[in-house]
Amino acid sequence: MQIPELTVLDPVGVRVGGVQVADDPTALVPVLRELLAEHGVAVLPGQVLDDDRFLAFLQGFGELTFTAGETPLAGYPDLNVISNVGRWDSEAPPRSSFHVDTSYVSRPPAYTALRAVTVPEHGGATQFTNQYRAAETLPDDLRRRVEGRTITHVVTGVDLDAVGDGETSAAHPILRRHPVTGRESLYLTTPARCASVSGLDQAASDELVQLLLEHSTRPDNTLDHAWAHEDLVVWDNACVLHRADHTGVVGDRVMHRGMVASYG
After folding, report:
1. Which residues face 38 on adjacent strands?
2. d(Cα 48, Cα 205) in Å, to the nearest integer?
3. Domain residue spans in the chain?
4. What is the pTM of this model?
5. Alpha carbon distance 203, 150 (integer Å)
6. Taking every annotated instance into account, which residue ranges of this chain make up the domain TauD/TfdA-like (predicted)?
7. Are the C-beta atoms of 131 and 108 separated by less than 8 Å?
């Protein structure tokens, strides 16, 4: 395997260049595990990948998982499509808020990966936050308010019939230790999925979640990844929030997504 060229991104992430995942889809996985635990996001540009090799790459991390209610990619039941095609309406364009993938289960997915299939002419960035830094920079008054508390995360936005008997809610510590590094991370998701904070009434819960989200998503704690053709991006759901920025998008935006269940 070629030695990757690493560029640390601010405030979160690392750019991994000089390698082609397709040459040996699992060879880079041990390196990426370490990079993701430390930096949260790995951007791999110029990856000439088809879905078979993308799937093999993901399987190198371990067992895959799929969010019940999503539509699988034809021929690839472990992958799904993220797309604005047919969804664009100038009166009501697609919206995305900062979140963690499938946080309403007791063991949320460890990693999520997107490969760029079609990149818009303008806009369509994915934004990532550094939740390690969010925890480290938490003001003293907020820290006192969240220490020892949990947030109950609930399912929204998917067909509950598809979920069936699966989990639809789970409580997670607000100050959560990363399963690999043990570092403290500020763990929350989009307010619509933050049903309650332990020990607080609804109004106080909602206010606290909003304050934590505003703190996490400050511009100086957010990376805007502007997609390029053949980009592959992987992130660690335990230490980043993410969202698609649909503002001013011109053209189709199509990504193929896969998720890894655990850290192995």
Report:
1. none
2. 46
3. 1-264
4. 0.94
5. 16
6. 12-258
7. no
